[in-house]
Amino acid sequence: MNEREVLEAICESCRRLHARNLLAAGDGNIAFRFGDHRIVMTPAGVNKAKLRASDLAWMRLDGTILSGRPSSERAMHLALLKAVPEARAVVHAHPPIAIAWSLAHPEMTHLPDDAIPEAILAAGRIPIVPYARPGTDAMGRNLLPFLPQHRLMILARHGALCWGETVEDAYNGIERLEHLCLILKQALEMGGTRPLPPEELEALRKQRDWIGPRVL
Predict the structure, then answer these.
(1) Is residue 216 in some structural domain?
(2) Domain-embedded: residue 169
(3) Sheet holding 159-164, edge to edge
(4) Could you count the other beta carbons within 10 Å of the beta carbon of residue 130?
(5) What is the 3-state secondary structure (H, E, C) of the chain?
(6) What is the mean pLDDT of residues 14-39?
(7) Percent of the chain with pLDDT over 70
(8) 15 is in which domain, residue-wise?
(9) Which residue from 26, 58, 103, 210 could staple onto 66, CB 3.0 to 4.6 Å apart?
């Protein structure tokens, strides 16, 4: 994708996140790294439903701001992009049900994945990253133990994050996560989940290894 297409993809993904209630008002942020290590990022305090390409902020991988007012959570994006050279796009949103899982079950280390085939095939294990105060460097530090092996993560009490090679890949991860969380929530309300047989889980995980790390 050329630069103009990337900017349009960021704005379109923000509108889709807002329309699907995966963030509200100025919540969430998207960043994309170009080959010359310039990073374009959503600005602080702008409603994502109304975002325009001209609103986007630009910076370098070392944190130098080139133009605009990048998100207050840019340290998290920079930490990930520095740690994972293959990461190009990062999407952070506030999916309500995913957040609710981390609120209701603070003891959980990952989203339950032994009952839904798609949880394994489309995303692999989805860890819950320990809480860090929003906007602090700790948000980035807390991600590091989960990188690069995990692309899709719940941020405890705060939101979710997905990285990929394209903005679409990273957006799809957030959408996938909230859908899985909704299924699990509804199953629990209807009496609970039942795990797949061990041999089926093993087969699904082998199939996931063959598919590769991309979140589908």
Answers:
(1) no
(2) yes
(3) 65-67, 57-60, 38-41, 29-33, 89-93, 159-164, 152-155, 128-129
(4) 17
(5) CCHHHHHHHHHHHHHHHHHCCCCCCCCCEEEEECCCCEEEECECCCCHHHCCHHHCEEEECCCCEEECCECCCHHHHHHHHHHCCCCCEEEEECCHHHHHHHHHCCCCCECCCCCCHHHHHHHCCCEEECCCCCCCCHHHHHHHHHCCCCCEEEECCCEEEEEECCHHHHHHHHHHHHHHHHHHHHHHHCCCCCCCCHHHHHHHHHHHHHHCCCCC
(6) 96
(7) 100
(8) 3-211
(9) 58
Contact 88, 164 (CB under 8 A): yes
Closest CA to 90 of 148, 137, 45, 131: 148
CATH number of the domain within which 26 lies: 3.40.225.10
Identify whether 81 is part of a domain: yes
The whole-model pTM stands at 0.96
pLDDT of 143-184, one tens digit each? 999 999 999 999 999 999 999 999 999 999 999 999 999 999
Residue 148 lies in a domain: yes
- pLDDT given at position 52: 95
Amino acid, single-letter form, for residue 22? L
Block residue for tokens 């796009």 = 89
Number of domains in the chain: 1
